[in-house]
Structure prediction request, 563 residues.
Amino acid sequence: MSVVATPKGRRRGWLLAACLVWVGVLLLVPLIGIVITALEPGVHVVTETVRAPDVIHALELTAVITVISVVVTALFGVVVAWVLVRQRFWGRALLNATVDLPFALSPVTVGLAALVLFGPGGWLAPFFESRGIQIIFALPSMILVTVFICVPFTIREVVPVLEEIGLDEEDASRTLGASVWQTFFRVTLPNIRWALAYGVALTTARAIGEIGAVLIVSGLLQGKTETATLFIFRAYEERQIPAADVVALLLAAVSVTLLVVIEFLRHRQERERSRT
Amino acid sequence: MGSAAQALGGRGGLRSSPRTTAVLRHLALRGAAVVYLGLIVALPVVAVVTKGFGDGFGTFRNAMATPAAWAAIRLTLWTSTVAAGLNAVMGTLLAWVLVRYRFPGRRLLSTLVDLPLAIPTLVTGVMILALYGPNSLFGRFLDDLGIRVLFTPIAIVIALCTVTLPLVVRNVQPVLQELDPAEEEAAATLGAGPRVTFRRVVLPAIRSAVVAGTLLTFSRCLGEIGSVILVAGNIPKKTLTAPVFIFQLTSQFKPSQAAAVATLLFAISFVLVLVTSRLIARDEASA
Prediction:
């Protein structure tokens, strides 16, 4: 038996080792590397960095953009998913394809698009300028580009679940006299909650990490339109590397926490699905 | 109104008004979906493509004629091809190992694979800088060997491989999970070696998932900027990728030229995404 098992075992060993080396070199070692690099200069650098007004402002701005983007994409994401699954109409395929467009677009292109629309001489610039509303190089455009990039996440998680649960439960609820809202909150929402939560977690991670589009639309105004990722970018350009590393470590810590949540939600969702 | 509702709702009868409300509600939701996607997604895409072609095909050709633009696009295309190829192989292997092998640390490996979904791409860039930079042991070791990673295309490929690591794995994994190991055992019993079994039994089942994941990886690589911008050095004609080039053009107030490069990138990506969704749809139809 062992004679037969040896070449198989050896092959397994090689394949496993190749995978571990690949993931180790690309992810695990760099992750440990950033922890060491960021903490090496000492605790005082860490405390000074997280107390600096620029850093606090950048983190707050990232939080504001993330929360608004998550709320918008979750609300409209459920509406779009519901319409795509439950309604048949002319142009539905086109609407469906539009959802995936952000996957095909570089974040820089998204930023550029906002510039073309709202920038100096842009298509919509006269409309907003005459009303004294600043879109580009300000918070509104930063939220718009982040929402654009995050559009597909919730929708692509909720659509398959809605397809799977079908209409029976919703029909039954309506037949029993429940209103549309009661049906939605008592029947539909509990069915899609894990998919929705998973989509929200992915959206949060993506919104926190967004850089390409905000690099263009923010105008890089220090202390005004500078998000956490933009702070890291500027700190590197200005050779304030210890501060950049500390904020990078902080964002890495947030994303690892999010990842644990994401993994938990994925398992919940898979379990829920295999039960039905 | 009542008859219209009857026609639309089918069984309206005397209680036509709730039917009408239902139809209106349907239309309102559909309208909200169309307006949301139209304003947030479609309008900006139309804006960039229109700007890219400006006064016709001439603007597009002029923007493309500069050597810097072509060099940036060529660099982006070849580094993305290498990264997509590497992750096609390693991603399939990872999916295989995660599905078929049981070993201590499997859950940890699975979680690590998903890490690039959560970690900001710029932070990935910072991690690469910290690891391969002159201040780290590893960086100095490579330096002694005469290998330079930072500010060369190698750093770009490493960055791209890292941020797209989960894509092939997560496409192939569910397909492998559905695949019955009994088929492979049958092939082995009939005298097929591991290579033949893989080629004849496993590969046909996972082929379109691998292709879909790889195309997605490639398309994602074409647009990647966060992980690349810090580690590439951005030397024109050498390590300046197309997305970073687009960023530089916009900060130099050359939006038309930027839009031309962006349109070309988008065209390539869009075709790939369309092919990918076709592949997935065909697979689901045959399953």
User: Anything to note?
Assistant: The CA atoms of residues 234 and 240 of chain B lie 4 Å apart. Chain B has two domains: 2-51, 59-286. Confidence is low (pLDDT under 50) at residues 1-14 of chain B. Chain B touches chain A through 86 residues (CB under 8 Å).
